[in-house]
Amino acid sequence: MNPKHLVLLILPLILFNCKEENMPLYVGTYTSGDSEGIYKFDFNTETGELSNRQLAVAVENPSFITYSPNKKVIYAVGEGQSSAITAFKRNEDGSLSFINSGSSQGKGPCHVNVNELGNKVVVSNYGGGTVSIHALNDNGSIEKAPQVFNHNEAGEKPAHTHSAQFRNDDLFVSDLGRNRLYHYKLNNDIYKLESESIIKIEGNPGPRHFSITKDGNFMYIINEYGGSITSVKKTDTGFEQIDHDSTLDENYKGPNKCADIHLSKDERFLYGSNRGENSIAVFKRDVNTGTINKIQNISVHGDWPRNFTIDPTGKFLLVANKKSNNIAVFNIDSATGKLSFSQDFKAPEPVCLLF
């Protein structure tokens, strides 16, 4: 073969592989300071570097963002002057274009989740204690919510719904104010209450976020006030608690509020964030019994880690440090699950990371 022809064949492959090293990372922020909305970075999957920061779209307090299943649309909620959920179209250059916006049917929307089919979205309204379910159109636009659940009850503690997740025909909702994990079931396209709490949660731990295994057999709830993780197993008749573990180092005695929780890609490890101790707690998980054992607390190299994520390769964990205006990048040891700090990058009030 002519050497020139060989070069022509190889060069596109080299360019393709180099391009594939970078993937977009969208960052939701609070806009009370220097931030203007949702930002986009390029993330290098080989080095863990973030580069080419750009404002993807200007919007008030996009404190939680998520994709549609086909990743063509991003949905954002935020505790702004108007309690709304907004849909944005992803453009080829990575910027976002407004599609439409609708009322979240409650004050202080703080979390949004889309079902596997991409035809429904659920919004958790922390301030109002309500959960709204909206239909989604083919172009990603949002319809008015046909169902709104209000967890408030007269004479009881105010409800503060903090996160919700669809799973097949199930919908689970974590209510930090009522100390419950509600369970709703889909029936003839309508969600109906299955249980006010899948387990009895004692005291006032404040269940905030939760992570579910791929097979749906185990669930891990991070408790904001309790500095702990509650492990839950699915049974033939419902759910049962199997474990309860502190997220804090035994020598730490200061104030703390837990925030986010994620399983590793292979589900052998579990990670949770501590605001106050300013750390990520690392747990080794028994994949058979579902129980966990803490093996590390590592500094987030910043202040107030509200949210974190694991990149699609499973090699890096990235932390959004709200008060120190930085995103910290950690290497994940695939054998032990432990983290080692790599580097950090400036970002204005980052609070949600989306690959």
Report the span from N to C terminus: 42 Å
Mean pLDDT: 95
C-alpha Rg, in Å? 21 Å
| Helical run tally | 1
| CATH architecture label name of the domain at 59-197 | 7 Propeller
- Strand tally: 28
Pfam families: Lactonase
InterPro entries: Cycloisomerase_2, Haem_d1_sf, Lactonase_7-beta_prop, WD40/YVTN_repeat-like_dom_sf
Family: Belongs to the cycloisomerase 2 family.
GO biological process, one term: glucose metabolic process
Structure, explained:
The protein has 355 residues and is mainly beta. The protein has a domain at 59-197: YVTN repeat-like/Quinoprotein amine dehydrogenase (Methylamine Dehydrogenase, Chain H, 7 Propeller). 5% of the residues lie in helices and 53% in strands. It is built from one helix and 28 strands. The protein has one helix spanning 3-20, and strands spanning 22-29, 37-44, 50-58, 64-67, 73-79, 83-90, 96-103, 109-114, 120-125, 130-135, 147-150, 161-167, 170-175, 180-187, 190-195, 207-212, 218-223, 228-234, 239-246, 257-263, 269-275, 279-285, 292-299, 305-310, 316-321, 326-332, 339-346, 350-354. It has a four-stranded antiparallel β-sheet with strand order 3-2-1-28. A four-stranded antiparallel β-sheet has the order 4-5-6-7, with no helix packed on it. Strands 8-9-10-11 form a four-stranded antiparallel β-sheet, with no helix packed on it. A hairpin with a 3-residue loop joins strand 21 (269-275) and strand 22. The longest helix is centred in the N-terminal third of the chain and has 18 residues, at 3-20.
